[in-house]
Amino acid sequence: MKPAKSPPAPGHLTADSQKLWKSILADYEIDEAAQMILAAGLEAKDRREEARAAIAKDGAVITDRWGQAKLSPWAGIERDAGLALMRAFRVLGFDQ
Fold it and tell me: Residue 9 and residue 13: Cα distance in Å, rounded?
């Protein structure tokens, strides 16, 4: 049986991630440990979106102090955050 009231979304998440939190908790019954995994996954989602915005603004390739082109640090952050999000969803069983 699903509890009457779901816990609120963590306040530091973006509005979009808070909406997703509420949607997931409306559809699934998850315990406190799974809520921690969900929160970490949604934090990664927010980080990925932040990185995407930075890449859209400045590009995926930047110029270093010697004038050489190199991959923006945001590209790695986007990649790592995307992997963390997918891993969290896999652990929670949302990949099935």
Answer: 8
Written as six digits, the tokens of 27 are: 């559809």
Cβ atoms of 6 and 25 closer than 8 Å: yes
Quote the DSSP letter at residue 51. Answer: H
Span 36-49, pLDDT tens digits: 999 999 999 999 99
- Residue 20 has phi, psi (to 5 degrees) of -65, -40
Burial of 45 (0-12, 13-18, 19+ CB in 10 A): buried
In sequence order, which ranges of the chain are alpha helices (DSSP H)? 15-27, 32-58, 73-91
- 17/51 Cα distance (integer angstroms): 15
